Amino acid sequence: MNIGLQSMFYKYKRSVNWWDQGRKDAAVKHLDLRCCRRDSAAFQALVSSDEEDFLATCGHDALLWKGGPLKIIRCELETDAPVRSEIKWVGLIEDDNGTPTADTLLDDVHVFVAKRSIQPAWIELHASESAAPGTYSGVIRFYAHTMFEDEILVETLNFNLAISEEALPEPSDYSFYLDLWQHNCNIARKYEVPYWSDAHFDLLGRYLHSLGQLGQKALTLVVSEEPWSGQSSFIDAEPSDLNEYSIIPVRKSADGRFHCDFSAMDRYVALGEGHGISREIEIFGLINIWTDAHAGYGGLIEGHPDAVRIRYFDEAEGCFRFMRKAEEFADYVEMLEAHFSEKGWTDRVRIVADEPQDMDVFRQSLDFLRKTAPSLRYKAAINHTSFISENIDGIEDYVPVLNCAVEEHEQLLGLKRERSGTFAYYVCCSPEKPNTFLSSPAIESRVIPWLAESLQLDGFLRWNYTVWPDDPLRKLSYRPTIWKAGDTNFVYPGKLGAPLLSLRYKWLQRGIRDYEYMQLLKRRGLQAELDGVLRSVLLYRSPQELSPASGLKAEQLYSFRPEDYDRLYGIGAAQTVAE
């Protein structure tokens, strides 16, 4: 057996990584780890076999292979550290080129491992706020047996964990502004439950918990039908169901008046608040609707520039219809505004425009909404630099794609000084680097919050928490010429009714916690020391060099060495010793 330890940023790719990387020359037998309180330290253990298939388990239950005699390798962790420890086997997902790539943190207690392949185990040590600072030790033992043999110890690996005095904030109090959009109808479809049913909300609670642990700030509410027109799935030879529908049922009574049922929306907001997600309520479906008239995704409202689709049940006729008149749409917007005001949400609500293209149409739609509902506030995800230079009245929150944010960086910071809203950046199917694709280097998920700090922006947005294709655990690759594998998700639909987290989720979480530690250092007057670490990690000389137009390689823009990032935690430790 080949067994050893690797960094949390190790990414196994079958047929790319050498199968015997658990050997002494490619993995280590001891690691020194550190974390704050309300933080965690993580690493990976690798196990492989030269000559035989085997079962790997981290459980204590009796276990035999269904196919007969097979060696069973059991992993067990012991530590004197005051932490909650977990071991999860890492599952492989096929990348666009067919390469099985480590990404999922599995619920399975045991997994089958083919000979000459590597099975990584994700090992994480969680330190609570009450954890006593100090240096602790731990061991990971691997035992082996076949059938009814007694177990024998085949390997012992060691680690030390230093828990520092510093405590990170609760995730709900993170200053990093994280906005990962939620596509909740897709969650219901994967578990085959009715939209907005009790079963659906039970699932949503588990997914919101996982978002809350990242410090998510925004709740996504879709209030019309198909604001993204099914992500144009109709162009695909094998389309996946990516449709998103309104959370608000509307009916028209016999007297001609419209009525909205806000109960599901209110329940979702309350559910998110229960998981610490309470800064923003982002509304999709009122402006900048994506269209493809030739495919049937055109506008419905006569005289209105945008393709808003409001479905309602006509009680007099006993059938469903769509609003066709601008005054009907205005009634709907006014009811939304009144409800937001009644709930005390007005300051938190943002009407979101996702990548406006036609500026004339966008301005007309924005003018209509501002006149109809003056208290509503607006946010735009921007994918072209000219939008920033337009300086449009009414847009409070700006979220440009990274290349726009760096190409118009000075102008963006000027707007940030003038406006009271949030200024973040996003990546999606572009730019290629840094990104969070399955093929992206592991460190790029971590560097994302570091860039926000360096660029003086508030946080990060991505569209992709659960935009799964139809069977993501079997085939994640979908429309690979546009969306690289992983572009559509940070988690997977777990069979136990909760999300399977990914390595990319964990790597982003590490970067967010780095960001929070940076804010702690700044409050302690250690800006100069922080700047020194930032310079060693972020290698570009000006923001513009981050643009794809610069032609620079990723290695010229930021460090690929985890230890360079980890130097951040030596700053506070050095000051504590000095004190």
How would you describe this protein?
The protein has 579 residues and is of the alpha/beta class. The chain has three domains: 2-167, Immunoglobulins (Immunoglobulin-like, Sandwich); 175-240 and 261-293 and 327-510, TIM Barrel (Alpha-Beta Barrel), CATH 3.20.20; 528-578, no CATH class. Helices cover 26% and strands 27% of the residues. It has 13 helices and 25 strands. It has helices spanning 184-191, 198-212, 263-274, 326-343, 359-372, 385-390, 402-407, 409-418, 443-454, 503-523, 527-537, 562-566, 568-578, and strands at 2-7, 30-37, 39-48, 54-57, 71-79, 84-94, 100-105, 110-113, 118-127, 134-146, 152-167, 177-180, 218-222, 250-252, 258-260, 280-284, 311-314, 319-322, 349-354, 378-382, 395-400, 424-426, 459-462, 491-493, 499-501. Helix 10 (503-523) packs parallel to helix 13. The relative contact order is 0.11.
